[in-house]
Every structure is written in structure tokens, then in C-alpha cells.
Amino acid sequence: MLHGPVMVDLLGTELTAADERLLCHPATGGVILFARNYESPQQVYRLIRAIHELRSPHLLVAVDQEGGRVQRFREGFTRLPAAAQIYRRCDGDLAASRHAAHELGWLMAAELRAVGVDFSFAPVLDIDCGVSGVIGDRAFGGSAEVVGHLAGAWMAGAREAGMVSVGKHFPGHGAVAADSHTDLPIDARRLDDILQQDVRPFARLIDGGLEAVMPAHVVFSACDGEPAGFSRFWLQDILRDRLHFQGVIFSDDLSMAAAEQAGCYAERAHAALRAGCDMVLVCNNPDGAAEVLDALATYHDPVAQSRTARLHGRVAQRWDRLHETPRWRSAVDLAAQLSAEDNLTLNLGDRP
Description:
Blueprint: E1 6-8, H1 17-23, E2 28-33, H2 41-52, E3 60-63, E4 65-67, E5 70-71, H3 83-89, H4 94-114, E6 119-120, H5 144-160, E7 166-170, E8 186-187, H6 191-196, H7 199-207, E9 212-215, E10 219-220, H8 232-242, E11 248-253, H9 265-275, E12 279-281, H10 286-295, H11 302-308, H12 319-322, H13 326-339
Parallel strand pairs: 1-2, 1-12, 2-3, 3-6, 7-9, 8-10, 9-11, 11-12
Antiparallel strand pairs: 4-5
Helix pairs in contact: 3-4, 4-5, 4-13, 5-7, 9-10
């Protein structure tokens, strides 16, 4: 059974009979895990193994494990610093920052692969323009150069640990104050300004082989009237044709307020797929997920399926053996040093 075009979530830490029916639906292609699905490395390893046993090829398993405010698996996993802490704590030394980003990308990926997670929805490629609270310190920096260099190093480290990367939120969420989880942000800047700033980190990582992208639920009103995730202009004309991106395009969560203008859940899913998404996410709304799955029960896109099939993680070290390696111990020490003064209190809960 090939991958379907929908990524869904689960309610708890173990699979129920209802979960199994959901995951065996022909339109299901993956699972995103949240903090509510996690108790310990051992528990989540068992959960993921149970998910994998349901289908062949395995369903994709993903999580948001950026670090800082957005880290779903905490107790038992290394506490990762917010992306912005890297450049700050390295005193603006780009070479030192790149090394740190590389090792933290490796650490994040090595620990997730050890419990069976295929990939994290990271790195964040948005530029911190000082106006977006929902982005803020999730960005690697306030310039395209810093973000591109550090995110590229982070991606290379994750790749060494057997994990692909998902750059988000294309073409950039950092220049709007509104939070797309609760509102529809509108960015009125000219296309040239966006291409010369926000798009540059994406272009850099795409040139380096970035495997997947997640677009923003943001309307760039001078360019197109649809949010980027529902826009053929952004996904086809710019991302595919201009930037020559050949990887997977994930929608952002269709349950977010910014997606509501596309209609009901089924209409949102169809609109995202028509625009160019390969897989859509429906999180924290079981009824919405059921609606999308039913609407896409016979949906079939061989090109999208071949793309998503390449996102499975490569063979990883066992959890206990990983903890015996000098590289893991060194990376854990580095993470602790970079997190030492991280006193952030904003909690995004179970929002992607």
C-alpha cells in the first residue's frame, strides 16, 4: 500500500483501535507526533514501532523538534536551544555558529532516528525581522546570510544522522506580526523584496539538496491573493520553476485559522493539492481529519508518492549505543552551553 496524501495525528501514547483504522485508511500517508504522544524514549519507540507494523511501506512519522519553544519530546531527550541562541551565544562568530548548528542538527536527528522518527519539520528558514512573535527566536538570525549559513549547516548535520530536512515557512513568515495559527497574516511587500531577502535561505538550501518544504499560511498580497500554501504562483512558478525545487511540499496544518478562507476541510485539502502540495497535514481536529481522508480516499498522484517515499529515515544507531558515543556526549555538552541562559516562557503547546 503506497503512501496517501494526508498526515494525521493521534490522541495518546498508545494506539487504539480507532487509531489503527485511521492509519490504515488508504489516504493516510504519515503521522505527526506531539507532546501528548510522548512519555519517554522507550514509550515513543514502542508507539512508532506499532505504527510501522500497520503498513508496508511504513507510514512516515514526523515531529516538530526544532529546539527552544518547539520541542515535543523533552524528558529523556537532550534539551535543544532555540535556533537564535546559536549565533548569539557564539558572539556573532559565523564559523563557530555553523559548527554548533551542524552538531545540533546531528544531535536532534540522531536522537529522533534512534526511536524511529523519520524527520522533524525543521529547520525554520524564516528571517527574524523583529515583528513576528510566533517566529522570533525560532529563526537562526535576522539576516538571510546568517539564516542560510546556519540552517545549511544544521541540515548537513541532520543528514549525517540519516534524516531529511523540511524547510519552513516558504517564502517566509518573519515579516508579519499576525500568527497564522489564529489569524490570516498579510504581507504587502513587493515580490522583489521577498525574493532578495526571505527566499534566499530557501534557495541556498535547495541548492544543497533540501528534501522538503512547508509553505506559510501567509498572503503576500502584492504577488497573489491566496496564502502561499494554496498558491500555484508560490508553489509552482517560484518554488518549482524558479528555484528548481524537486522535493516534497507539505501543507502547513489545515486546522490553522489562516487556512479557513479555503473552505471546509475537504476544500482546503483539495486546494492545497491543486496548488502543488504533495501531502497535507490535519492536526488537532479528528473530525476535520476524517473529512479530508474521506474526500481523498481515491486520490492518486504517482509523482507525489515517489517524492514522499524518499523521506524515510536511514538506518540509525540504537538509543543505548548512541549514548555511548563521544560525539553524542560532546553535542549534549554543546546544547547545554547554548541553552544555559535560555529563559523563554512562550509555549506553543501542540501547534506545528
